[in-house]
Amino acid sequence: MSVTSDTVGQHGEKELIDRIAAIIGKSFRHDVLISIGDDTAVVRGSGDARLLYTCDMQVQGVHFDLSVITPYQLGRRAMAVNLSDMAAMGAEPQYALVSIAVPSSLAVTDFEELFKGMKRIGDEYGTAIIGGNLSSSAGNFVIDVFLTGRAARKVYTRSGAKVGDDIYVTGSLGGSLAGLQAMGAFGKKAVDQYRDLVAKHLEPIPRLRVSSLLAQYDIVTAMTDVSDGLSTDLAHICEASGVGAEIQLKGVPIHNELAAFAQATGVDPIPMALHGGEEYELLFTSKAGSEAVLSEIARQSSVPITAIGRVVERESGLRLIDGENVTALEPKGWSHFGSGNR
Amino acid sequence: MSVTSDTVGQHGEKELIDRIAAIIGKSFRHDVLISIGDDTAVVRGSGDARLLYTCDMQVQGVHFDLSVITPYQLGRRAMAVNLSDMAAMGAEPQYALVSIAVPSSLAVTDFEELFKGMKRIGDEYGTAIIGGNLSSSAGNFVIDVFLTGRAARKVYTRSGAKVGDDIYVTGSLGGSLAGLQAMGAFGKKAVDQYRDLVAKHLEPIPRLRVSSLLAQYDIVTAMTDVSDGLSTDLAHICEASGVGAEIQLKGVPIHNELAAFAQATGVDPIPMALHGGEEYELLFTSKAGSEAVLSEIARQSSVPITAIGRVVERESGLRLIDGENVTALEPKGWSHFGSGNR
Fold it and tell me: Across the interface, which of A2, A111, A139 has its CB nearest the CB of B61?
């Protein structure tokens, strides 16, 4: 490696991805429908079908800490975050490949627990682990899951939001970051005291059942999952769709254990709900007037779906409405490199 | 992680993979044709088509050393080893996803060179990079490439070898390990002195053109690529096919620069050719009497194809014939964990 002061650590994740996209260029393969820049890549399948591909790498010391997550939970989570990407596209997951780099010191029982966790959640969502790669590691433990998926007819991307659409989110927000902080502050005791927050962080539930219903009713105009944080993921939709957004603060569904945690620790729950990442909820836009259908989908899936704002002209940017108070909603979610969790 | 003396480092790669296979079980998806245990996974596509999936992780300190490989070569190589897996199945590569965990200290120019190397070899073999995942790394640099492929009708696995078939290998053997050793012994000077050996290690050529012709003539009964070493990869074919093999030592094509390197350093070239890994040549079996067709394929592809032995009854095991001298050919190629390069 050349010695230089211009390192990847000095650049934001987005800029680095833009540099990759510039090198890779537009695909010479005409069957590629979506490349870098959405939750998954999409290629043309036979007939109207779409084939989807995604991957997500979990790196020890960056994404997980084995003093707080069990190997079973880690395996489950590594698979869940990929399943969530398929949910974000309105697709059905199919096959997974698992690459792992494992330090020699890992206990064999832990190694097996990791795969049991992956297998369990795979089974739950009709996804088969069909291959992978096993390597020793001179350093950290790394797990990379590749997931394929299929959509019968269409996929839902970040780029279809139109001015006037309503903005919705499934479940609640802020819980995952609070769970992480609770474990940092209270260690293993947090698991008893803030059970739901900790579970929200360690055992995310991919919203595939809601997604499947949303696709069935074809009610979504743009969609993504909340992996980087509401503000950042909403900015992704706005950028891809060429629109702005107004979020009503009072509409944002805050995790029901977060208030107690915030009171005990003195943190402000609002920024946690607005910017906290790794929630794996669905964030989507839908034409105005979709409330009745969405209520039915929420009922059928037993997952809350909450209206949190509406799509506006691009020039208005991203705004947060708190009664009379209107402020800019800056994307402050997670970014690898650059300033990290900004 | 629990504290125990039973760690993954005490087990061989094969045993660990068997444990994964036991946990994952036979797929509940009937469209899965080949799961763990071949060069790629294979699922049913539309009509007679087969869809193939593979991944291969390159870990700093295990697979590469940035003091000898350039980032461009590293990117090229990370893609090449996956392309080689598609060649081993007689399939055409299609799309790649790239996951990387990058230390913050990596120079941006090196980061870009990595992707330029991947893009270049992808273009060469009709493979588009369509997505991936970028993470920071608290430790080592890790690159994981996921590759999809397609076969119009059938794939070639490790399991079709029949008693009486001839055994063939493309190109030559021993060069990659010698190239690695040359760089270890002579550093950058090796690049000038043993140019072909070093290139064989740093810039492997996936044998996709030969593979495509082999598939076209449908002349292969079993196939794999030489990634772990001839002895180990042949053992994989024998185990999967339920057969034994006899290798004629005088038939094994030894890399043409290896003799000079062996003389200069006092190493024995024979074990290097028999057991050295990361060659990415094709090792395959074919019905007796295929010589004429294989000569034609060698001519069309400009890649040598050499007969090195024949398939025998399982009970005979793997044997090495050196004139009158017959010895057991032990699989001594690369294994992660356990005894490493045994």
Answer: A139
Spatial separation of the C-alpha atoms in residues A337 and A36, rounded to whole Å: 18
Residues contacting residue B296 through CB under 8 Å, at least 6 positions apart: none
Task: Give the torsion sign (CA, B183, B185, B187, B189).
Answer: negative
- Measured in degrees and rounded to the nearest 5, phi and psi for residue A286 equal -150, 150
Name the burial class of residue A9, with classes exposed (0-12), middle (13-18) and buried (19+) by CB atoms within 10 angstroms of its CB. middle
> Per-residue DSSP letters for B162-189?
-TT-EEEEES-BSHHHHHHHHHHHHTTH
Look at B130 and A41 and tell me if their CB atoms are within 8 Å.
yes
Q: Vertex B53, ends A70 and A202: CA angle to 5°?
A: 20
Q: Quick one: tokens of A62?
A: 């960056």
- Of the candidates B49, B115, B135, the beta carbon closest to that of A57 is on B135
The pair of structure tokens assigned to B123 is 């273009």
Dist. CA B197–CA A310, nearest whole Å: 62
The question of ipTM being above 0.90 is answered as yes
Tens digit of pLDDT for each residue in B197-227? 999 999 999 999 999 999 999 999 999 999 9
Q: Could you say which of A36, A99, A123 has the minimum Cβ distance to residue B131?
A: A36
Token couple for A308? 């949190």
With beta carbons under 8 A apart, name residues in chain A contacting B46. 45-47, 49
Provide the whole-model pTM. 0.94
Determine the pLDDT at residue A188.
81
Q: For B47, which residue in chain A has the nearest alpha carbon? A: A46
